[in-house]
Predict the structure.
Amino acid sequence: MYLAYSDGQFAGGTAALRRSFAVVPSRPAFALAVDLGAGVGSVMWWRGLFTCLILIAASLALSPLTRAVAHQNPGTAAAAAVPIPTATITPVVNRDAMTVAATSVINESLIAALVRSGAGINEAGGVARLLAPYGDMARLEIGTHLTLSLGGRPSPYAPRRLEAVSVTGPGIDARVERVGATFAIHSKRAPTTAPLHLTGRAGDGIFVSASAAGIPPETIQTYLRAINGRIDFGALDPDARYSIVVERARAADGTVKFGRLLYAGLDSQDQSARMIQWTVGGHDGWYDADAVSQARAAGLAMPVAGRLTSGFGMRFHPILGYSRMHQGLDLAAPFGAPIRAAASGTVSFAGWHGGHGNFVQLVHGGGTGTGYGHMSRIAVSPGERVVQGQVIGFVGSTGLSTGPHLHFEAYRGGIAVDPRSMSFSVAPLLDGAQLAAFRARLTQIIRG
């Protein structure tokens, strides 16, 4: 730009710049691109609009032609359009027979397994109803084998015709074949059933040893619960021998299914148990062969191996800080030591009982009873029938207690008495015909 006075003479210096001046822009060079948003109506604006219209017309005139070209049949002079037909897929009617083998990997129903293998649901239902008397068709055992003979498809959208099916697995081994419009059992082989007798060394670990022999974990757990009330595992001789008898069914294909635990036995130098399930006084449970037949008299058995620290009578309570009646015996013993029933009876209470902490009360008949307090853990439930010497809990220090010990009470006619004065005869749990039946069943299971 140029700076000039109003009289047209150029001058320089700061004083001159402070005077009035005019800004004269330089003229831009000619350009095709014109801003149509500025100077509307001016000569330059009209020239830019004219240029824009020329460019649009030129682009339309020079664009390529796009017309649909009809498909021409080769070899014909006429340029006739040929329509392209829509493609469709038609199912093939396959009339060839086939055989399908499948194995159940989940506890599915027989109907679901047959349909999954290619059979129609109606025919699968007919086969399942036919085999229902021979096993649980609503829940096949894992590993059950199915072999299906399937015919062809009678129509494009119909399932294959089921001609025959063989079902082989734990508890079932049968073949069903088509007879006209229905099915019939062609052959059925019952699985062989023979109890499995297993013995092992307890020092090797009962759970590990029995698992290695193929006994299911749930069966081993049932065994351990059964003998828990008769055996002190903490004092178990490593050379002790355990015995397990469990139901077992073997199918024709060699598949094995285990059933109920029949016998739980253990023999050691100073401990033994021979347990089977039996019903005594309306209660089902595991009972020892000796406990149900032996009558014990003249006093209660000591419930825990410990030393007497406090007797029956008035005493100064170490926690409450005053004297009051001590209605039992305090027997000091290691924490977790097993507590055994002083006599056979029924559990009338098992749970938390104020200052007694975890407490178990037994009734023995004839108005007599016993109580066991401060347990760390209770091993019985209300209404359960127990035998003398059975573990009913473990030594602890719950409730108002200064350390691990057992508070042992005895009652006569509902009144607490000194347990050392108790003397009464305990009749056997079973006698006569009931005891004979128990022994016969025990012998049958052991001998197989």
